[in-house]
């Protein structure tokens, strides 16, 4: 019987954020005949431990205390004696562990923001953390190019997957745009005020903003001052409620000035919801412009595109259908094979390939 690779995924599966959700999905979909999968959960949030046990996943409890948390994680990593450590969060305790135990295993991380945009080129601490790893991968072509340009590291692209079925009941029911959705942190760089302007421009459409952040009061005041009745703010809601709202939506707008590879775009597409995003500082690998979504240069072009889709229902219907079809390649049950291949390659050639610092 072949030895299973013992892998530690450094996320907290019951604490919702992008990196934790990704670790959760990798844990679920990895082939358990090839990998013995270990990951973590936090003690103060609900966790269906029975479900993970049925999936063949080993869970380790983290106590939510600022001092105990660190050492709890350190001890789990130490006594587990894993073959591979995937550490996407690169918390300080992760770095301390890697420095002391790098000779004993393969250490991997991922770059999930564009260097020069979300990741500062002058932040030497972050750069050194990546150089400390045995290998890193990028989650989009745009990120890969920035890592090469600024840090001179060649990275493999491993996309973040999306969960969903091969068919969608909404595919045939989406005939025209009636409800527009916006999902994200309500903060300055996400430019939530652009959604307010869109709602003002299209009073016959219904708009919904999901998320919280320090710009919420500013946006509420804007909505009130403009007397808008067609824009609803939900604040932060559970993930399952977000998915329910996506199912009811007809179009997703992304107004950020910069992103890595927004997972919400894939989640919209798997729900049959096409996307318009502003590609001022980034490109979305999932989107082929005017085929399964739109990349536009600014807010004015975003509004023009919305109007085009309102005026041309057939164009909208084709866009929605293509969005659902094209995202199938990015489902986790397809993408996981690339992750398995990557992890196995890193295990087989560990210590033979290193990042060269220049």
Automatic annotation (TrEMBL):
GO molecular function: glycosyltransferase activity
One of the Pfam families matching this protein, by short name: Glycos_transf_1
Keyword Transferase: yes
Protein's recorded name: Glycosyltransferase
InterPro entries: Glyco_trans_1
Glycosyl transferase family domain span: 169-324
PANTHER family: GLYCOSYLTRANSFERASE, TEICHURONIC ACID BIOSYNTHESIS GLYCOSYLTRANSFERASE TUAH-RELATED
Keyword terms, alphabetized: Glycosyltransferase, Transferase
Superkingdom assignment: Bacteria
